[in-house]
Design a protein that fits this description.
By secondary structure, the protein is an alpha+beta fold. The protein folds into two domains: about 70 residues; about 140 residues, no CATH class. It is about 35% helix and about 20% strand. The chain has six helices and nine strands, in the order E-E-E-H-E-E-H-E-E-E-E-H-H-H-H. The protein has a five-stranded antiparallel β-sheet, with no helix packed on it. It has a two-stranded antiparallel sheet with strand order 6-9. Strands 7-8 form a two-stranded antiparallel ribbon. Helix 4 packs across helix 6.
Length: about 230
């Protein structure tokens, strides 16, 4: 038995759950064997699965499958949150994401990059374990921590945009500052000089949330990380 989870006719992408094989099938309505996003997602998830296995976060090696117009992934059971909720106040959640990144990503200046690490692309399992999904924006080489930079910014910006506000509340900003300093204190990466501009340059989609940040909100973020 299969269940259709998602069908996006604009992007021509769908997601199916196969109960019999306990797998997720991400399929494309047009042949995309050479499509960059499909290849990136396969390679990114493949790299990530190997890291999970090496750190004994999954019991067995998982084989991913790539076909002409589809990808087949394992199912990871857990809680899935929406971006518009104010997760900045959930300190256990944030700690688990940052801790997971530090555990799996090598301590080198240049590392693989997920590319869209928002709350919606993370599955929260029991005992504060997490799994990062949707690797279509994967890149092999970016500076360490750029994913956490993106995650923390999205965590405060997306709920504000959803509520059509142009500034952060003091409590939200204070928590953002705590986790930013905890992750990037004494770090010297190029993106830290102006992370919003840096991330915008990496984004080809001008409808991305990074281009919808108000001047007031941007000023709040930049001042809080200096």
């Amino acid at each position: 038995m299969t269940t259709l989870f998602k069908l996006d006719t604009k992007k021509k992408i769908g997601v199916l759950f196969d109960n019999k094989s306990n797998t997720i099938k991400k399929f494309y309505l047009t042949p995309r064997n050479k499509d960059k996003e499909l290849i990136n997602e396969f390679l990114g998830f493949q790299w990530y699965i190997k890291k999970l296995y090496k750190k004994k976060l999954i019991p067995n090696k998982i084989i991913l499958k790539k076909k002409t117009n589809s990808l087949i992934f394992p199912v990871f059971k857990g809680t899935h949150f929406k971006f518009w909720d104010k997760h900045i106040h959930n300190t256990n959640l944030i700690e688990s994401v940052i801790g997971h990144y530090k555990l799996l990503w090598p301590q080198k200046k240049i590392v693989p990059y997920h590319g869209d690490l928002t709350i919606e692309n993370i599955i929260f399992k029991k005992n504060n374990n997490v799994v990062f999904i949707d690797w279509e924006n994967y890149r092999t080489k970016e500076e360490w921590g750029l994913d956490i930079c993106y995650f923390l910014i999205s965590l405060i910006v997306l709920p504000v945009l959803n509520l059509k506000r142009d500034i952060l509340k003091k409590s939200e900003l204070n928590l953002f500052k705590i986790y930013w300093k905890k992750t990037f204190k004494n770090k010297n990466y190029s993106y830290l000089k102006n992370p919003l501009n840096f991330l915008r340059k990496k984004c080809a989609n001008k409808n991305h949330f990074l281009f919808k940040i108000s001047n007031k909100l941007e000023t709040q973020i930049i001042k809080s990380i200096l």
